[in-house]
Structure prediction request, 475 residues.
Amino acid sequence: MFQRILIANRGEIAVRVFRACREMDIEPVVVYSEADREALHVQLAEHAYCIGPAPSAKSYLDMDAILTVAKAAQCDAVHPGYGFLSENAAFADACARAGIAFIGPTGDVIRMMGNKSAARDLMKRSGVPVVPGSDGAVPDARTGAQIAERIGYPVLIKAAAGGGGRGMRRVFDPDQFEGLFEEARAEARACFNDDEMYLEKLVLNPHHIEFQIMADAYGNVVQLGERDCSIQRRGQKMIEETPARVLSPELRAKMGEAAVAAARAAGYRGAGTIEFVLSPTGEFYFIEMNTRIQVEHPITEIVTATDLVREQIRVAAGLKLSFSQEDIQPRGHAIECRINAEDPAHGFLPSPGRVGFLHLPGGCGVRVDTGLYSGCELPPFYDSLVAKLIVWAPTRLEAIRRMRRALEETVVEGPVTNTDLLHQIMYHPKFVRGSYDTSFIDQNMDTLLAWTNAATGAASAEAGAPRDREQDREE
Ligand code: ADP
Ligand code: ADP
Ligand code: MG
Prediction:
């Protein structure tokens, strides 16, 4: 087993990986930017190294700086978390060259899956269903418009290197295709320094259903069930739950098998996620594979009684998976809410700054993953995700009730957060019934914001908060 792991990340995921290391008797070594001197992961760690100034490009994305620390601190492995260098093939290669284990798949696998258009082609060849789309890259807007005609509108323009919902445009009107294509391409160039584009048919009102995969170096591939991540804003997830209410046992089994086939086709090792869109009529299609630990992994851990970060570390150290497919028998229901330091009432503007009083929930069935503490500083340079509230209960309705009370207990003074909005979603009849899809936020944001304002006294109470207990029934 490894003796020292360098954690190449910050925020809640750095703390999450730190905890796994401590429990495995591995020494965690952390890194931080100048803006993160006071961060929780730095305070917890005995070994902490500053790797540069605040902007990620000069710190958390600086491969040389990170590898220099890894060598100097005699680390035998690097855990990249999510975001930053986690899906950077060159970094995985550089670790391998330096004789340091990269906790994740090989650089070649990351490279292959990192090009979403190429990943699609591989899945299609391997018999995993994909959405009808362009076979391969689309060279220019005019060719794209022709391919879109063939696929049939509406279509989705996507960046091959895309992530975090960026570089994507939905097109309903053929006349707007070329303009939106150029817009998406410019965004892709700016965000990913890569403007390869491809097309998919836009599936209307789908669910985002993803499967957690774990694979070892001995050919064992296990799927740990699904997560419904359809509560999204601009392609970014806000709330995730498992099990997904829309899946029949048969469909769940079929999608699980497709996810295992996809991981096998990729020659995968470690923790990964196969993402699908599921149409209202029950057809499912592969959209991408995320070759890293996912933000929403805790809901899977809770229902399957596993520790996915521990498992990642074991697999990277050359051990076999500690469970088989038969061992995975999910129990109960889990929900995660992402608490972001952003202001829903003002276009979700990021809200960094110093946190004053802080109170996080606890009690039966509640887990909080966060880098927050009373008095901490939230720098403006990074992702706005600051805490994840995860609840478990025997049934879905009990989990929803537990999440409501956990959100009610949450107090973050200082920066504005989306906590009240999340709380209102927990009362929305569509959410309570489980009859929502990826269009939920777009279609209900005005109502939700009115409810939030009414509940927090920010506006007239006319809109009326939806605390109608009559609606508290699952259908
Ligand atoms: P998840 O499915 O794990 O929620 P997200 O797409 O929301 O995945 O990304 C998780 C984190 O990684 C977020 O902090 C997001 O900003 C970041 N991220 C995702 N894709 C990229 C990318 N291509 N480049 C940089 N950061 C990314
Ligand atoms: P990213 O790499 O940014 O996570 P994805 O390919 O996973 O991009 O797409 C982000 C979200 O966009 C998905 O979770 C889903 O809600 C929606 N989406 C992606 N592809 C399609 C599609 N073909 N039809 C409908 N919705 C889609
Ligand atoms: Mg995705």
Observations:
- The radius of gyration is 22 Å.
- The pocket of adenosine-5'-diphosphate (ligand 2) is lined by residues 131, 156, 162-165, 200, 202-203, 206, 208, 232, 235, 275, 277, 287-288, 438 (CB under 6 Å).
- Confidence is low (pLDDT under 50) at residues 459-464.
- The first strand starts at residue 4 and ends at 7.
